[in-house]
Amino acid sequence: MTARIDFNCDLGEGCGDDAAIVPCISSASIATGGHAGDARSMREAIALCLRHGVAVGAHPSFLDREHFGRRELSLPPADVHALVRAQIEQLAVLCVEAGTTLAHVKPHGALYNLAARDAASARAVAQAVFDCDPRLWLYALAGSELARAGAALGLAVAQEVFAERAYAAGGGLVPRAHPGAVIEDLDAALAQVRGMLRNGIVTSIDGHALPIRADTLCLHGDRADAAAFATALRDALRAEGFAILSPATRIPHA
């Protein structure tokens, strides 16, 4: 059987070459107004995805455009649930308008990292996804609290790994403020991807070999070189014998 991997990227954030990235990926997480994006950018991103057969997902975040959603805010779980649900529903309406349906939800930035480690926040995010549509896939950091919360509710969970982010010894992502948190070298990123997909292992920033499950591979779309990275990753995945497809559709990417 051919090995499969979903290749996802963030879109509609106003800082990347979305048109060049979309032909390389199988699913996209579209900014829903919290950290970036508006109705126009969401419609444009949905149209791009439809043009290239890419599954559409929501990318909700803290309401913090000033810091691009990368500043952690202290909110009670009820407020986390409300902001995530509102952002999902906004994109879902635009999907229906465009003649398609929402496939998945992936939190962004500080909200993603908070839900990865904090059980109460994880349950709030997962419940918001379930309350919007229990058929939605939940993209969550592999092995995280969010992955466990989604599975406990019966959501389909895609365990997510990252091509160009360093891992800490505990399996979380190294905070961006730390040196080496972002992998800038393409060859190093490709080596990390091969290790995760072929061997189920990622090497932490301090040299520990960590077991990891990879259902979906993420590339951050706000990198200045995201389009070049996306092309190289797509080509490497194909060379390794992987079919690139969304877990929601199971349709091979063209």
Word description of this protein:
By secondary structure, the protein is α/β, with parallel strands linked by helices. It has one domain (3-244): TIM Barrel. It has eight helices and ten strands. The protein has helices at 18-21, 39-52, 77-98, 109-117, 119-132, 145-153, 186-199, 226-239, and strands at 3-11, 27-31, 55-59, 104-105, 137-141, 156-162, 201-203, 209-211, 216-219, 242-244. The strands form two sheets. The protein has a seven-stranded parallel beta barrel with strand order 1-2-3-4-5-6-9, surrounded by six helices. Strands 7-8 form a two-stranded antiparallel sheet. A hairpin with a 5-residue loop joins β7 (201-203) and β8 (209-211). α3 packs parallel to α5 (119-132), α4 crosses α5 (119-132) and α5 (119-132) packs across α6. It is globular. The protein starts with a strand and ends in a 10-residue tail after the last strand. Residues 250-254 have low confidence and may be disordered.
Outline the fold blueprint.
Elements: E1 3-11, H1 18-21, E2 27-31, H2 39-52, E3 55-59, H3 77-98, E4 104-105, H4 109-117, H5 119-132, E5 137-141, H6 145-153, E6 156-162, H7 186-199, E7 201-203, E8 209-211, E9 216-219, H8 226-239, E10 242-244
Helix pairs in contact: 2-3, 3-5, 4-5, 5-6
